[in-house]
Amino acid sequence: MLEQNLLLDFSHIYPANIGNDVNHLIRIDLSDIEGTDMYCSHEAMLEIQRRLNNYGPEGIHFLDNGNYHYMTKVFVDKIKKPFSLVLFDHHTDMLQPMIHDLTSCGSWAGELLHENAYLKQLILIGPSQQNIENNDVASKVIYISVNEQEEDVAHLQIKKVDLTLPAYISIDKDVLDRYWARTNWDQGNMSIKTLEKILQDIFKHQNVIGVDICGECDLHESYWQLKEDEKINHMTNDILYHFLSQYML
């Protein structure tokens, strides 16, 4: 399978010429596949997997807005050795899906914990305390909440991380405050500098297989709001892409 930096285009939220402006980034148009928004049907998942069959989990992947965060599961299911998932998210994405047996943007991480035998640890960074649930896979999950970051006790949780495992990193920009990102979900209060510092520590101590980024805004916003939000997200995507490229290329 190929190691490539990919842009998955479900909603056309990304600039049409981004492939020309950004080096080593391949756009894959998935917008014609029905049954992908928030919930992914079985037929849609099979077609997505077919189109991504030649691409591995390595590289940097842009996943569109948070409604398609389940695409992380598609990439990490390609990893066939023990690994950890470092998930930056204001939500846990471990909810029970409202539509039974369909993967959703809010349930994919819980499904991954139950179904993927190679996933040994999930390090979840960024949820508010009220969003952290008790579950039957708690032994695999290391929670670092927003409050823990502010109180500077995150290092107590970080000590539990198995640094011998290679890591896959997934970043939902809803973990950032609205100065740095405008998403289609409620957001946390992390700055881009804090995110970069944590990422730098991960790259320093673990072998990173790949990274993905989601959290674009809603195309149905009013025109001027959409333009403002797109400008902010484009700036942050550019910062993250160039920061990660130091380590991934």
From TrEMBL:
InterPro entries recorded: Ureohydrolase, Ureohydrolase_dom_sf
GO molecular function terms listed in the Swiss-Prot or TrEMBL record: agmatinase activity; metal ion binding
Alphabetical list of Pfam families matching this protein: Arginase (PF00491)
Signal peptide start and end residues: none
Domain of life: Bacteria
GO terms classed as biological process: putrescine biosynthetic process from arginine, via agmatine
Family of the protein in this entry: Belongs to the arginase family.
PANTHER family from the UniProt entry: ARGINASE (PTHR11358:SF41), ARGINASE/AGMATINASE (PTHR11358)
Protein name in UniProt: Arginase
Organism from which the protein derives: Massilimicrobiota timonensis
